[in-house]
Each structure stands twice: as C-alpha cells, then as structure tokens.
Design a protein that fits this description.
This protein is α+β, with helices and mostly antiparallel strands and about 350 residues long. The chain has helices at about 140-150, 155-160, 165-170, 195-200, 240-250, 260-270, 310-320, 320-335, and strands at about 25-30, 35-40, 55, 60, 65-70, 80-95, 95-100, 110-115, 120-125, 130-135, 180, 205-210, 235-240, 255-260, 280-285, 300-305, 345-350.
Length: about 350
C-alpha cells in the first residue's frame, strides 16, 4: 500500500491544544462495521460487556524536554555558546541517553550542554539522526533535577502552538501512570478518571495493566511512499505473568480484549505467540501493524484520532479496514471531533468475536 492511501485533509482548528475537563467529558465516536454512534467517554460502560477486559498502558511520562546552552571546552567565556533543545528518547546505561537535539549540527564531541545549576550533559556523538549525551548525575538525583529543569514533551503539533505549562504536568499524565520512562503519553488513557475506572470494574469488566514506554518516534513522519519500507523505532515494553494470565483467562471465558490506546495494542500483539496465545514478555518492540495484519489478541480498540499518513492511521485501518476508517474519519471531521493527543476518542469494534 502507498502512503497516500492514509492521507486526509484536517482543518487546523480541529487540532486540540487542551484536553476536555473533566477527562470523561471528551466525545467518543463508537464505530462498528455497519454503525457509527456519537457518544461521550462517560458512556463507555454502555458499550462494554461483563467479562470483557480493558488493557491499560501504565507508563509514566517524564518531563523529558530540556532547554540548555552549549559551551565548548577550551573557549573563552561567552564564546562557543548556543541554545540547544533536547528531548530524551531512551537511556543507554551509566547516565547516557539517546536524545533528539536541535540543532544537532551545532554540537561537537565534548560539548557541554547546561540545563540548570544541577543538571548538565556532555555530547558524546551522534547515531544517525539522534544524539548520545551523558548526564552529570544519575538515579534519584537525576530524577529530581529533571523534574525541576524539564518540561512535558508535548507533541510537535501542540508545541508549535503553545509552550508546555504547569497544567500539562497533570493533563499529559494518566491517572494510573506508574512506571517512568515514556516521552509521550498513551493518549487514549488520558480520558479516564478514577470514578470511570470504578464503574467499569463494578460492571464486571477486567482491568489489566501493561507497560510500554512510548518514544518520540511515535511522532516521526513516514518518509517512504511504499509503507512496507518504513522502519519503526523500537520501544521498551513488558507484559507481566499476571497480565498475560488475566488476558488468557478472559479469552478462554469468551470475553473481549480491548486495549486502550495503540501502545497497549502493539504491546499485547508483540507478546502473542505463534499459536495466537499471549505469554509474559519483556523487551523492545518495533512491530509495525498495517492492513493485512492478523490480530491474535485484540478484539477492539479505544484510541484517539491520528495524524494523516501516520503509522497509527495504518494500524487502525488494519483493525477496521481502510475504507471503513476513511468513513469514520470523514464522520469525525464533519461532526467536528477534536483530533490528536488532547482530542476526543473513538471506540473501534470490528466484531471479531
């Protein structure tokens, strides 16, 4: 398939820069193969059945966007100074991180980037389009300094419209975030509050937590017209033995497995065995789901509305069919749903069970 097969025109004013409040007030477009219903996230229990199971990504977003100044060893004070923006991607051990640095061309080996009085890093070199840096501190000291100096790494389409602020520290984090490591939120999960989770559990729907540390690669554009040539960035994830057992038990009992967000979906499908069962799993996944993919675990998906020509648009098209997703997005645009990370959501039910 071609990249153009996943393109659509989106009015700029439908890109949400703030989330709905309360979280469950977001709109929810429920789509089956032959029906579309306009609802709200607070209505989610109307579409779930006792015995179903939601799979939630409990990753925690770190304030991984840093603004600093570069200095060059051996130069006089005031010389060799430049502003550098860094977005953390993944740790590489011993205080080293792969990062996105702008502008990367202004960095040379040995340069020091100062982010605050407590936090600075040495530039070690580049790996393709990423930079490798080593921070001056590790562990709890690093976490504390990052919390002071860093900002929430808002997606580029929001950051282009406004700077991150204190509200984003709460808005861009799920209520069940547990394990730090993501540089982007599992945004479909931002619509949940504790009261909704309690109502879902009370009706007999299971809640299973998995962890996928979402990377900034989720926002990188697909640059090849033949999508089969696209290479996904790897992200670390874990499906615990407890999570795998809960999912297996639900499948055996005839319940539906509905991941909340494409990150949870990609993780459980990565953990699926050749026999179509799920097993405990840990590691990096670069699974790329496009039309024609055979879903082993997933029966439905709650997800926000995605960017044109994105890998996530390809994923939802694989689940529902390209023509059906085109119709869903036409409906969402015509009815002025809010798009992307802080936007509204959808519940996609392909009726596989």
């Amino acid at each position: 398939m071609k990249l153009s097969d996943f393109n659509f025109d989106l009015p700029d004013d439908l890109i949400a820069t703030r989330p709905a409040r309360p979280r469950t007030a977001s709109r929810l477009l429920v789509a089956t193969p032959d029906r579309m219903v306009d609802a709200q996230v607070s209505d989610l229990t109307d579409w779930l059945r006792p015995g179903d199971r939601l799979v939630l990504n409990d990753t925690k977003v770190i304030p991984g966007r840093l603004f600093g100044t570069r200095t060059r060893p051996g130069q006089a004070p005031g010389e060799g100074v430049a502003k550098i923006e860094v977005t953390l991607l993944s740790p590489d051990g011993a205080g080293q991180w792969h990062v996105m640095a702008k502008p990367l061309r202004k960095l040379r080996d040995g340069d020091v980037i100062t982010f605050s009085e407590k936090l600075w890093a040495t530039y070690l070199g580049r790996d393709d389009d990423q930079a490798l840096i080593c921070f001056n501190i590790e562990g709890d000291d690093f976490d504390a300094a990052l919390a002071e100096a860093g900002k929430m790494p808002l997606p580029p389409y929001i950051a282009a419209k406004r700077a991150a602020d204190a509200r984003d520290n709460e808005d861009y984090q799920t209520v069940f975030a547990r394990h730090s490591g993501a540089v982007a939120a599992p945004t479909a999960s931002l619509h949940f509050d504790d009261a909704l989770l309690d109502r879902i559990a009370a009706m007999g729907v299971g809640l299973t937590h998995v962890t996928l540390h979402v990377g900034a690669g989720t926002f990188l554009p697909v640059k090849v017209d033949d999508i089969a040539q696209h290479k996904m960035h790897a992200e670390w994830g874990q499906v615990s033995a407890k999570a795998a057992a809960e999912i297996e038990a639900t499948i055996a009992a005839g319940g539906r497995i509905i991941p909340v967000g494409t990150t949870a979906l990609r993780l459980i499908e990565s953990a699926a065995t050749a026999s179509g069962r799920i097993a405990p799993w840990q590691g990096e996944t670069d699974i790329f789901i496009t039309p024609g993919f055979r879903f082993n675990i997933t029966d439905g998906l709650m997800t926000n509305f995605h960017l044109p020509k994105s890998t996530l648009m390809m994923l939802v098209s694989a689940l529902m069919g390209t023509d059906r997703m085109r119709a869903v997005y036409d409906h969402a645009i015509a009815h002025r749903y809010r798009f992307f990370s802080y936007g509204d959501s959808s519940l996609l039910l392909p009726d596989r069970t």
